Recover the amino acids of this structure.
């Protein structure tokens, strides 16, 4: 059955419309990623409303391709102007920019492209092999396990988000609280709607995430524009690495790809974490440690393989469990939901054709990224020169029209703006917005599964500990919270002291 | 202590939101109010925890932070070191609000080019010629993309 679905997915992904979606998505990702200040997440959020008018498979493939393309695109500005196009390319600056200063900008971009291709392909293979197995396993989940999955999703993304874990978890809880707005799924009573009929069906979270990820970004572009013209290094050398260079980067690329896949699977950690993780490990294993930071090709490959490998990894929990592995995959989940498809275990059965099309599309987006990267990187250099002050109003227009188009509702636009302002102020106090989005998504699953579980147990909470899967997941949730407390910091300090002594 | 004040205001707002939700939750059937009440309690606790954490961190890291700040002043000017222009952010925010609230009564085709025109002139984004070209070109591009290509609606206002 799985093999049959894989073949159906392949034939769907090879349809002309899907291939066009992949190529367009990758190209958009490449250019958006190359623009400093525009993140992959924001790019996907802005593209999301456009996919509403498309076939689900084409639209979702386009979103995934944009995600993949933006991961490579981010390295263009990281290498050429010392400003990562996306947070996931932050570590690429370390060796990429020194290479550009040495007149090897083309080589740095070529290494980045090859490493991104390998990372992306390996993560697509991981997605194609792990997702069906995990999906089959998740099919056995009842309300008790689903409750634990939702709790795990919130706690882990909250506690592992950058900054303070308390702020991360609070953000997730606020998301859950806001997800309670609308009709109660058990009694059918309107909850926290304040008499507004537009809120009866709940907070439309696709609209919320367009606001959360795009409005703050647009305002940031304006408030921090220095007005100083960007100095862009030119590409004068060849891009593709020689066989010798390829052999040199290959082991690191493989290691970083693995790091990226695992980092992607863990909710709350994305390309920004993976690129540093991959870079630091490459440096740790290297014999020529002192050349890192001075233009070592291995450093560029390590960071770029890791951030592209995150894409497939992050889609694994999104597709199989309905828990987004990163904020970008949370928006892709939104893309599925506006087409009436609920991400989670049923995605591998009821919507298997769509799911496998998406997985194959991700695989093809790597090839598209490589070819487009070779052809258009020199063109993409020009977009790094676009002023932030030109981009900001354009982003606003896309947000406004996009959020209106989803439900043909001006109320959604107001709501989008309100979430945008909320996101801006959350950013000012270093509170991550991704847990809030995940809370909004998982709220109804948590609510329904909690009530169903308690009905099954006659009101006893012990049901969550008597079920082995649920018990394990809840223990992991507890550990993820505990690791954020001072107790864990004390243990970590003691452990690191011992390691230094050793 | 500036950071503590900022966090205290944010925590206060989260608590106020929770209390508003709590006042509504008390009027709901027991089943419908069950999970929201738990979440409200957690939000209030975490908000207080966030204030305490910030206060504790500021108190213990004050000296270390000062050392880091002094060092960072010597670093090159990069994205993080560019001062935030709050006045500009505020005015741009107001422009967005005005754009959104006039969209439905007036319509996309009038407010969108006007928004680009005013925003670009205020932000000194580019010269007059480019401003006019982008404001008309981008308005038509978005209309073409959403309405003609994807068959999605835009608010037409007085032109509808």
């Amino acid at each position: 059955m799985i093999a049959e679905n894989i073949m159906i997915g392949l034939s769907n992904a090879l349809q002309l419309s899907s291939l066009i979606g992949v190529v367009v998505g990758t190209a958009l990702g490449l250019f958006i990623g190359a623009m400093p200040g525009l993140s992959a997440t924001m790019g996907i959020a802005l593209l999301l409303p456009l996919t509403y008018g498309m076939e689900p498979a084409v639209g979702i493939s386009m979103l995934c391709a944009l995600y993949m393309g933006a991961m490579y695109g981010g390295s263009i500005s990281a290498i050429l102007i010392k400003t990562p196009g996306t947070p996931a390319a932050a570590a690429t600056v370390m060796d990429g920019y020194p290479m550009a200063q040495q007149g090897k900008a083309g080589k740095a971009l070529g290494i980045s492209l090859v490493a991104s291709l390998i990372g992306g392909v390996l993560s697509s293979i991981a997605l194609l092999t792990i997702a069906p197995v995990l999906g089959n396993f998740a099919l056995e989940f009842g309300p008790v396990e689903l409750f634990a999955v939702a709790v795990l999703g919130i706690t882990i993304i909250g506690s592992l988000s950058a900054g303070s874990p308390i702020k991360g978890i609070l953000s997730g809880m606020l998301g859950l609280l806001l997800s309670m707005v609308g009709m109660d799924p058990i009694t059918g009573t309107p909850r926290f709607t304040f008499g507004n009929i537009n809120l009866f069906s709940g907070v439309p979270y696709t609209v919320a995430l367009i606001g959360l990820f795009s409005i703050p970004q647009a305002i940031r572009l304006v408030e921090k524009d220095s007005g100083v013209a960007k100095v862009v290094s030119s590409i004068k050398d060849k891009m593709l690495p020689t066989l010798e260079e390829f052999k040199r980067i290959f082991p690191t690329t493989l290691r970083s790809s693995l790091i990226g896949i695992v980092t992607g699977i863990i909710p709350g950690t994305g390309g920004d974490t993976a690129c540093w993780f991959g870079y630091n490990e490459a440096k740790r294993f290297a014999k020529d440690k002192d050349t890192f930071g001075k233009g070592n090709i291995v450093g560029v490959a390590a960071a770029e393989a890791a951030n592209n490998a995150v894409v497939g990894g992050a889609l694994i929990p999104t597709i199989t469990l309905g828990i987004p592995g990163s904020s970008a995959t949370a928006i892709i989940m939104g893309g599925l939901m506006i087409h009436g498809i609920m991400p989670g275990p049923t995605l591998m059965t009821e919507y298997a054709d769509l799911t496998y099309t998406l997985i194959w599309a991700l695989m093809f987006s790597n090839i598209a990224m490589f070819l487009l990267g070779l052809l258009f990187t020199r063109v993409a250099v020009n977009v790094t020169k676009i002023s932030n002050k030109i981009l900001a109003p354009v982003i606003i227009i896309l947000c406004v029209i996009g959020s209106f188009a989803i439900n043909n509702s001006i109320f959604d636009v107001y709501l989008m703006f309100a979430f945008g302002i909320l996101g801006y102020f959350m950013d000012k106090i270093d509170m991550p917005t991704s847990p809030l989005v995940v809370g909004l998504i998982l709220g109804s699953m948590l609510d329904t599964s909690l009530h169903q579980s308690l009905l099954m147990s006659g009101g006893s909470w012990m049901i969550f500990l008597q079920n082995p899967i649920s018990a394990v997941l809840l223990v992991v949730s507890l550990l993820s919270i505990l690791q954020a407390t001072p107790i864990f910091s004390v243990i970590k300090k003691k452990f690191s002291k011992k390691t230094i002594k050793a | 202590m500036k950071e503590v004040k900022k966090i205290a205001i944010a925590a206060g707002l989260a608590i106020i939101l929770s209390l508003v939700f709590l006042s509504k939750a008390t009027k709901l059937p027991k089943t419908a109010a069950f999970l929201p009440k738990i979440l409200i309690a957690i939000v209030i606790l975490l908000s207080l925890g966030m204030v305490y954490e910030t206060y504790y961190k500021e108190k213990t890291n004050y000296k270390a932070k000062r050392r880091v700040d002094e060092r960072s002043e010597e670093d090159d000017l990069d994205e993080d070191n560019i001062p935030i222009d709050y006045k500009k952010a505020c005015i741009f925010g107001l422009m967005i609000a005005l754009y959104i609230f006039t969209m439905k009564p007036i319509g996309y085709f009038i407010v969108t080019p006007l928004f680009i025109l005013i925003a670009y002139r205020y932000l000194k984004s580019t010269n007059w010629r480019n401003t006019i070209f982008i404001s008309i070109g981008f308005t038509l591009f978005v209309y073409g993309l959403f309405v003609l290509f994807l068959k999605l609606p835009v608010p037409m206002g007085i032109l509808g």
User: Anything to note?
Assistant: Chain A touches chain B through 62 residues (CB under 8 Å).
